[in-house]
Write a structure and sequence with these properties.
The complex is a heterodimer of chains A (338) and B (423). By secondary structure, chain A is of the alpha/beta class. Helix content of chain A is 40%, strand content 13%. In chain A, strand 1, helix 2 and strand 2 form a beta-alpha-beta unit. The radius of gyration of chain A is 20 Å and the shape is globular. The chains are: A alpha/beta (338), B alpha/beta (423).
Chain lengths: 338, 423
């Protein structure tokens, strides 16, 4: 069975351009490459003294976070500002919904304030799809993370990191380690790597932290960290939430670290020039040793920098795709009237 | 009104009758087949040539939403919707507000159903007070008020000991229990079948074992108590096999499946449409095949709609925050006819699963056509088709089949000889 998103066209306009960015499922390789290329060009903007381009001037971007976040929210905010957009950030978990306002009402109110784009993070899988399909299809919706389902901008910034540091995906071995089951980052990474042609994607973890049906992503499963790390080019570590111990998924942080923690010694199993990535926030001494996180092979902080460029790329591409779609629809309507 | 039904293909699975004949109804009952009885003066004649005449369908689970949830549906709207699907008798589950755990609520439902005058209603009472799985409802008082069986829905008992006792108490009075088998602990927080689709979508899974572990326990307790039991809403192939094994060793249990479960799989969840959010969840293609084979063999002798109408808002949220359930009673017959179209069942067998099967499972006075019996019939055109949603009577439009063209068209649904629905 290959997963097929029944609503695949949802995030593309009639020309096949991005108009929402909800998931990497169903996006062609060429489009992912275009995102990476665009982000590359924005990286130069970040290096300039004046870090702004006028692509989104006069547009309003609303960051609507129904779930806490620091890094993602801040980098989206910076990305929108560098594109010259007006930016509003709302932490909805602490405002309207506690007054009983529904998700739909919150977003429709923001739409009424002439928002052009929503960046949404929500604890429910499928929340971004729901908003793009049923709440405000005319506003570009960017998924800033939905439940366990997807975190597509994180997926793409990880791909940019890999491409800039390791080059051609078709020659790489990539290992993703830890709590795959609860991780939207892992899901987006697996899809992106597969689409970009990575021939050897490995996931490493105990059975309690791996979802069923991993074969649909074309990955190979390892329960032994030492075996899984052998000769890889890239190691992506995932954050381990503390509450996993209570659910009986793991006996203790200590045992997890002994079996799956990334130590200097274990890094010796990977290729000598392998890179270490982590979506953050890091649990030092739980999934990764400080010496590795801060070591020469770590590109964890580069990921943050690239995250801004990727988000600039996605915001500008989705805005232009959404605008093009609205123009198209106006033309269709005009044709119908004639 | 004396009614003459002319030239229908009469299929009555209970008696095995399958022939083209005339049917004569008088005083709400079937007066004769073939030849008009002496002195019969037809006040109306239905030309039923080309139509199939079958016992009105018997649906063991149609949520009427009254009392307590009238924004989702009313007894009047949902019983009318049922007649559109060919249903003349239905059981309503006890999840009302207040819960159907007192005679007063049963009486209220039956009164309103009689006033509405559409399909006949047979309430299923709550096995425990407030469905809390702790203290027994007054089962005998509920029986006397008209409840035909007792269930606890998906709400689990607080202990196996309490469940065992409830079954023993019901057995004392030869009451039938309707048992849902889903372990609430294994299903905790789950939104979808634990499989590749849920894993891909990041939806928390409900494993097959949530059903099979509960089912194994329930079968053992039923056997120990010696209670009449009907197992409702099976979703797994393994579960169907466990029912088959129990029947093979002589346990007189029956089982049903939701009609949609025989058509849809968890693959439908791609795209996150909340219309496919049901509990227990849509399962794998292999499960669907196992269920279909069990329906064919008769291990599952009942197909029900498990109709659950909702107001639009209940489905307008991210998948995990929507309410579970599908509104589908009013297309029960066309949906079921897809099983004939697919070549799985012949028409008499399908009609058995929709009429005599359910009536036998809960000992209902329905589901067969016999002289002197109630004139509860459905007349349908097997060669026509129904565009689902073209007309819609249920308050709940939460049906993923709306817009689909389905085989067969209900022309007349007769309840006690009266036209309750005209297609």
């Amino acid at each position: 069975m290959t997963p097929t998103d029944a609503k695949r066209p949802l995030q593309l306009n009639d020309h096949g351009q991005l108009r929402h960015f909800l998931s990497l499922d169903g996006l062609p390789r060429a489009l992912l490459t275009e995102i990476l290329d665009t982000a590359d060009s924005f990286l130069e903007v970040g290096a300039r003294a004046v870090k702004k381009v006028p692509l989104l001037r006069g547009k309003t971007v609303c960051n609507v976070f129904f779930e806490n976040s620091t890094r993602t929210r801040t980098t989206f905010e910076l990305a929108a500002k560098r594109l010259s957009a007006d930016v509003i950030t709302l932490n909805v978990s602490t405002s309207s919904t506690s007054k009983g306002e529904t998700l739909t009402d919150t977003l429709r109110n923001l739409e009424a304030m002439a928002a052009d784009m929503f960046v949404v993070r929500h604890a429910d899988s499928g929340a971004a799809h729901f908003i793009a399909e049923h709440v405000c299809p005319d506003v570009a919706v960017i998924n800033g993370g939905d439940g366990r389902h997807a975190h597509p901008t994180q997926g793409m910034l990880d791909m940019l990191t890999i491409r800039r540091h390791k080059g051609d995906f078709e020659k790489l071995s990539v290992a993703i380690v830890g709590d795959i089951l609860h991780s939207r980052v892992a899901r987006s990474n697996m899809l992106a790597l597969k689409t970009l042609g990575c021939p050897d994607i490995r996931v490493i973890g105990p059975k309690t932290l791996l979802p069923v049906g991993l074969e649909q992503y074309g990955v190979s499963v390892y329960h032994d960290m030492n075996e899984g790390l052998r000769d890889v080019d890239v190691v992506i570590m995932l954050r381990l939430q503390r509450e996993r111990m209570q659910g009986g998924l793991l006996p203790s942080e200590g045992e997890f670290y002994r079996l799956y923690g990334l130590t200097i010694q274990r890094m010796g199993l990977a290729k000598p020039d392998a890179i270490v990535m982590h979506p953050g926030p890091i649990n030092r001494g739980v999934e990764i040793e400080s010496a590795v996180a801060d070591g020469a092979q770590s590109v964890i902080l580069n990921q943050v920098t690239y995250g801004i460029a990727i988000r600039m790329a996605v915001l500008s591409m989705a805005m232009s795709g959404q605008t093009a779609q609205r123009q198209l629809e106006q033309e269709y309507a005009a044709e119908e009237q004639n | 009104m004396p009614t003459h039904i002319l030239g229908a293909r009469l299929i009555d699975p209970a008696s095995g009758r399958d022939e083209v004949t005339d049917i004569y109804c008088q005083d709400g009952k079937i007066a004769a087949f073939g030849q008009a009885p002496a002195g019969f003066n037809a006040a109306q004649t239905f030309d039923a040539r080309g139509l199939v005449a079958a016992p009105g369908l018997v649906d063991l689970s149609v949520a009427l939403r009254e009392p307590g949830f009238s924004r989702k549906g009313s007894i009047a709207s949902e019983t009318l919707a049922a007649t559109a699907g060919g249903i003349t008798s239905l059981c309503c589950p006890p999840q009302t507000k207040p819960v159907l755990d007192t005679a007063a609520v049963a009486e209220l439902i039956l009164d309103r159903a009689r006033e509405s005058g559409h399909a006949k209603v047979f309430p299923v009472g709550a096995l425990t007070r407030n469905l809390a799985g702790e203290q027994l409802s007054e089962l005998v008082a509920l029986r006397d008020a008209g409840c035909v069986a007792f269930g606890n829905g998906l709400a689990n008992f607080t202990s196996n000991r309490n469940l065992g006792r409830a079954l023993e108490y019901a057995a004392t009075f030869d009451l039938t229990v309707v048992i849902h088998s889903q372990d609430s602990d294994l299903a905790e927080g789950g939104l979808a079948h634990e499989g590749p689709a849920a894993a891909f979508l990041g939806l928390a899974g409900i494993p097959e074992t949530a059903e099979t572990i509960a089912l194994a326990r329930n079968l053992l307790l039923v056997e120990q108590a010696g209670v009449r039991a009907h197992f409702s809403q099976l979703t797994t192939a393994r579960g169907a096999q466990m029912i088959a094994d129990a029947q093979a060793r002589g346990l007189p249990v029956t089982a049903d499946v939701a009609m949609y479960q025989l058509i849809l799989t968890d693959e439908a969840l791609h795209g996150f449409s909340s219309l496919y959010h049901v509990q227990p969840p849509l399962r794998s293609a292999a499960d669907r095949e196992g269920l279909r084979q069990a329906v064919k063999s008769g291990v599952i002798s009942v197909i029900s709609s498990h109709h659950q109408p909702h107001e639009a808002d209940a489905k307008q949220a991210p998948f995990g925050e929507t309410e579970a359930g599908m509104s589908s009673a009013e297309i029960l017959l066309p949906l079921a006819l897809t099983l004939v179209e697919d070549g799985l069942l012949d028409l008499p067998t399908l009609l058995a699963r929709l009429s005599s099967g359910p009536a036998t499972a809960l000992r209902l006075p329905a589901g067969r056509l016999s002289i002197g019996g109630a004139a509860d019939l459905v007349l349908f055109d097997p060669n026509s088709s129904t565009l689902a949603g073209e007309r819609w009577h249920s308050k709940g439009r939460n049906c993923p089949f709306i817009g689909h063209c389905l085989p067969g068209a209900v022309r007349y649904t007769l309840v006690d000889g009266r036209v309750a629905f005209l297609g």
